[in-house]
Amino acid sequence: MRKTDPFATALRDVSAALGLLSRLPVPLDAAAMHRGAAAAWAYPLAGLMLGGVAGLAAAVALGLGLPAQLAALAALAAGIAATGAMHEDGLADCADGFWGGWDRADRLAIMKDSRIGAYGVIALVLGLAARWAALWIVLEAGSGAGLAALMAAGALSRAAMVPLMAVLPHARDGGLSRGVGAATPRAAVLAAAVAAGAALVLLGWAAIPAAIWAALLTWGLGALARTRIGGQTGDVLGAAQQLAEIAVLATLAA
Fold first, then answer.
1. What pLDDT is stored for residue 25 in this prediction?
2. What CA–CA distance (Å, rounded) separates 209 from 239?
3. How far apart are CA 63 and CA 58, in angstroms?
């Protein structure tokens, strides 16, 4: 019987996580493509890399002599380009569906609709404004602080998705989340440990309140999703990432 190489499996999981959560040109073999929820533990590692992309954009902007507010804008643009705005789309869809529908079926239908409504626009504007303002403050301390903050926020916010995948049932029969599958409690714990360890290295003790606020917002969204649509979807997971990132950046800016 052929033994499984743990290192090779871990690399496949990181590739699968990046392939799912980003638009980066990641090489994916057949084994990685079929890892599904088994690769969820690696979401924080993907988040570290995506945060690094945004942080490097901010560092370049600062190096060119641009002020912190424009460097923050550059970081946001780079992060959105790297992910294809998939998480922002989830936040907007959740805002439209949760508050625009009268019942579960209506809310799920609205969330699946490609058109955006007033609630979605407001959520996007407020979410982007919150991230931009917090990043602006953080980047006043320099590119190193910005890079650390963005990488930690990337890891913690992607880790926030995994417990929802493990605890909440799928709200609909199809969709991206259903296709990926349900994460195991072990994957959720491992993702949290990876993200917490990375955040502690990058931020020191400041990682603790940041992680707590991210967890609280994730729990609140999960409770709301269970009440509104009976579980989670890919949009809910994207909204969780956005709220957790805002929580981390706002905590570091305070």
1. 84
2. 20
3. 8
Tell me the CA distances in angstroms from 175 to 42, 51, 78, 108, 112, one per residue in order.
21, 26, 27, 11, 9
Quick check: 183 and 166 in contact, CB under 8 A?
yes
pLDDT digits (tens, 9 = 90+) for 181-197: 678 889 999 999 999 99
As for how many domains the chain has, the answer is 1
- For residue 233, give both structure tokens: 């979807």
60-81 pLDDT tens trace: 999 999 999 999 999 999 999 9
Residue 83: both structure tokens together: 């992910």
Cβ 32 vs Cβ 185: under 8 Å: no
Domain around 55: 40-253
Q: Are 132 and 40 in contact (CB under 8 A)?
A: no
SS3 79: helix
